[in-house]
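User: Sequence in, structure out. Go.
Assistant: Echoing your sequence, followed by the structure tokens.
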Amino acid sequence: MAAGVSAGKKKGLHAIADARGVIAALAIDQRHALRTLFATVMHVDAARVPAEVLVHFKEAVSRILTPHASAILLDPEYGLPAASQRAKTAGLLLAYEQTGYDDKVSGRLPRLLDHWSVPRLMEQGANGIKLLLYYSTTSETSINAQKHAFVENVGAECAAADIPFFLELVSYAEGVDEKGADFARGKPEIVIESMREFSHARYQVDVLKVGVPVNVAYVQGSPSAKSEVLHSRGEALQLYRRAAEATHLPFIYLSQGVSNQAFQFALQLAAEAEVKFSGVLCGRATWKEGVSVSIERGAHALEDWLADEGVRNIQNVNKCLSSARPWFALNSEPHRTESQECLSA
């Protein structure tokens, strides 16, 4: 893959990855989801959470945690002040999509941010562009055709600007609870086929950002295990391998809102399966608990919590990346690692 990467894209990927070429990035581009977290703690409607609350929280996260990350993913709506406070060693990814989707329109169709373009995001210092796409292989053909064309257009814009294009694939099935057992049964095939689809050259994707191909809560031995087990450990490992085999592109895992311990378990499975993933973009598993700290105890308490628990959370994830492969060397033999070292005591 590296041989075909343009100079500008290669420069951006090196800025986002660590010295090994592994992406150990922090995600806090959440907008509506972050508002909702604050609204729950503040006991108000999400619309009543002031914008400055989001801005200040993102600033604190960026300032305190990016010394331990290779990059940070932010949004241009509330995250630009935080971008300026990141560590000098941390690259910058900026989100290009509007948050959420219009639930009055079927298909969870993507929308770009108004008044922004790839060149404008680059002017704010972006080393890479991220697009989130809700995608289901069970959707109507016409819905997915719109999404395919949409991603092609963003890929072409990134290619023209010579900047890396990160595509975040969020799997779903219409009318199905994404945390429930029914979706957990179908999730592996949706993840696998989504990765296969968007690996085609026409999309010009440089890095896929994906969820692990199982809901870890339904995997045998999970620290967040449900009463119902859908996958033995061996079955889960095989699904990891099938997903990895569906793409020739570098791919990184997102935490999907799970706990820090559950995400460590998910990465432990990746190491055990010896899949060639290239890192992570980890968000709520690192900083989620800081939301209540900031509201209930104030800004100084948040900074103390981030410097202690937040740093510990991100270091726990970083420990799980010893088996990750550089984005530019996917054809190398994987490092063998003791996967148990990943989980903290």
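User: And one key feature?
Assistant: The first strand starts at residue 23 and ends at 27.
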